[in-house]
Amino acid sequence: MADEGLRPIIVKRIKKGGGGHHGGAWKIAYADFVTAMMAFFLLMWLLGSTAKGDLQGIAEYFQTPLKVAMSGGSGSGDSSSVIQGGGKDLTRKEGQVRKADDPQMKKTYNLQAAHLKDLEQELERAELARLRTLKTKIEDAINARPLLNQFKSQLLLDITSEGLRIQIVDEQNRPMFALSKAELQPYTKEILLEIGKALNDVPNRISLSGHTDATPYASGEKGYSNWELSSDRANASRRALIAGGMDEAKVIRVVGLSSAMLFDKENPFNPINRRISIIVMNKKAEESALKDGGTVEVQAQGAQAPAAPAAPAARPQ
């Protein structure tokens, strides 16, 4: 019995370790496997639901993505696909407004039209540069000649939506034409001769229009009136331009507008309303003028006209 009291007591302790394959690492591997299988399933589904032509479009996109983006393309969301696209219009806050197969939602780009538009804009810029150069050349030619330099206040040049507009206007004590006649004053003829030399530097066609003030003839509109006078003065200006060296084929229109388009609308009897307007037309204005009903005249904007004298009873004959 004494031996039983000395018997050793053995305590078994169980140490818990990582557990090997019984741990949680297999869950991560399984999740990766499931993700890979899902991606593979989605890839196979997309390949199966996309037509052969669409597959070629996708391949072309990854080869040249910019070309496809500009020229447009189709995909599995199009109405031609087996799997119909659709869904809510994300540009709206509420309500199902449009579907993906709505023709209005498809954007296409015409590369040829875009190229032509860029070319047209480039031609317009080049044409505008030519007209500005012509404007500077005429101004320099007037400034270089002392005889003409004193009349530069009567020469108005500006760029309008239809081209370069050159206006030669009357002043109170310095008219361009003889009184109530289509006879050019010597200095007016010199100005037109100088302009005629410069106009051949550009290929643009021109339009001439004559204008008078509102002072009527004693005979009124029944006989020789401001309409005939403005037309005769415009034609006299055309002859002076041709004498200066301008090609006569450049003239596309010669019109007399009487006092229908006043420079100074507030003062219809102001001498500045008596003027010759020469428009060096751009391409658009030329095409418009060649069509029936085309107009080329541009009204003056923002010009400061001198004070108008008292209205005479009738234009002297």
From TrEMBL:
It is found in: Cell membrane. The keyword Disulfide bond does not apply. InterPro entries: Bact_OuterMem_StrucFunc, MotB-like_N_dom, OmpA-like, OmpA-like_sf. Residues 72-102 are annotated as: Disordered. Residues 106-136 form a coiled coil. Its main location: membrane. Residues 89-102 have a biased composition (Basic and acidic residues). Residues 164-284 form the OmpA-like domain. It is a single-pass membrane protein. PROSITE patterns: OMPA_2. It comes from the Bacteria. Keywords: Cell membrane, Cell projection, Cilium, Coiled coil, Flagellum, Membrane, Transmembrane, Transmembrane helix. PANTHER family: LIPOPROTEIN YIAD-RELATED (PTHR30329:SF21), STATOR ELEMENT OF FLAGELLAR MOTOR COMPLEX (PTHR30329). Belongs to the MotB family. This is Flagellar motor protein MotB. It comes from Noviherbaspirillum aridicola. The gene is motB_1.
